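Worked example 2:
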Amino acid sequence: MTSPAKRPYEGIETKPDDKKAKEDDYTRERAVDPSEVWIRGRIDTSSKRGTGVLKERFSDFVVREVTEIGAVSRLTTLSVPTEFREEVDLDIPAKAADRIPLGIDVLRNTFNIKEDRLEELKSSLGQQGGMSDNNKKVQITTEPITEKAKRSELHKTLKKYFPKLTSCTEGELIFVMRETNQRGGSKNNIFKKLKKDYVQFTMYKQNLETQQCLGQMASKLRVNAKCFSIAGTKDKRGITVQQVSAYRILPEELAAMNDASFGHGSCKVGNYISASSQLRLGMLQGNRFSIVLRRFSFESEEQVNTVLESTKKNGFINYFGQQRFGSTSIPTHTVAQHLLKGDIKAAVDVVFQSKAEIMKEFKPSADIWSTDPAKALELCPRHCRGEAVCLQALLKDPTNYMLALDALPRNSRSLYFHALQAVVWNELATKRVALGTVPLPGDLVITKGASTGSLPGTKHLTEEDIASGSYKITDVVLPLPGIDDKLMFPTVAGVTKDDFTVSLGRYDAQGLLPGSDPSFVNRSAGVNFKTLNLFGGYRPVVVVPSDLTWALVSYDKDEDDLQSCEIDTKTNEVHLPDSNNPVAGFSTLSGSYDSTKPLTALQLSFTLPSSTYATMFLREVADITTTYK
């Protein structure tokens, strides 16, 4: 009996190309094994690659958002534009120390305010003229003012001399309260003058997740985090520059964040403009990357140039990167798999054990959560807020594990299923590339100008299409599995709808296909494909980077910064462009290649479309190790 023919994708390299990162005092980083999430193939399988270390320093990984109009995000000014300032009365001193005594005299001489009221007002003010106690309310008048015109005049005077206070009338008596967080006039007046409710600004952050950074800003500004919106999330480990929109928050308030503490990270904001609408996810062209691979080892400069020229021309497989599957050795799609099986306890355990793997102080809680949730909550570190909410839910009913998952935000549960979609897509992408890197009859491509509901229009390539030479492998797309009835699948053997069905079946997710009940619910596990927005989509199989440039650079010590940015990572000094240095802080390369120096790095600059992973480009051009210091 003869053995079956070997399928083209069998025998593809399965060894992980990422070493596990080192343990430090705070986290133990264990990346998902690439082969486990089907990151196995490469476009260029013949060239030798150099080896290097990624993200050894924050400045080694710089990401700049490219806006919808193609502008690369850069922080060029911290100043507040004059359009956001209300007209100032030049007769009133700007400094609170000079202005407050004048205001007290006006209240005394013009409105006959009692001395005890004036003394209480003065004692309640802080150095900048705001209330030292935000909960304090000071009564200004002791007798009712029945004349509306006189009350209005007193309110205007209080606003004029005490702009950081809010005055109100209660029973014809005048009171003042906490500061308005606005210097120089009414916030409402400024937005009314602008006829726009949003302020868009550039946010430069380091060692902070996007939502973590915005959450801290919201807390410091005492606003709801929903006041902020973004076009895309950015990496934590590195330096990222992106656009943010804020609802009715003035630049003057936002500028205070430049002096605020962000723990182990840092954040600066500037480049304020008014906007009539908020940013939404996806409102960007892509991202511009400036990346340094340190301790780069290679056989020759020719070897380096060969593989980079190949990638510049032919691109790389557009895999969902390991970040999509979490930052531990336990991929996040296993949570979705357990939920689809109805094993909710196992799903919760994966959530907790994954946290314990990257935060060892949470491990005591993770080990006993199912047997003693009260003790687990007691041991839970304060900064593990999401896990603490889950444990608090279990206190109500220790065996109702669904309560714990329900305590998580819905978007967190969606991410588990998005990771499941991603691992299936990665598998089929690996199989498709193994069939060749040219278009084949039956491949799917996007048809411009056509759409079917929420999905873009697609067509299957014919022999005539292939012969025309009009299509490249970069035009070929694979579907992201979902329940939309209009979702199309290739007819190329090995990546058909049947092949997707087989792959989904490994994760008990056969229902994640067109034709399935759109309201499919595993009620015991709270899974509803429709409410989780698992409708599907299309993703290019191969992506070619834009504006790719590279250079070898030599250096002496590991702590040397090899590219400059807006903020000096050592001194925290701001270096913004001016007439003397118009390119300051634009991620420029420092140094040149000298083979006599002890250390060499490879510096890369390139642009990728949104939702494309830079790490997947990097694995095409080098064998990389990620290390955190």
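The mean pLDDT is 84. The radius of gyration is 29 Å.
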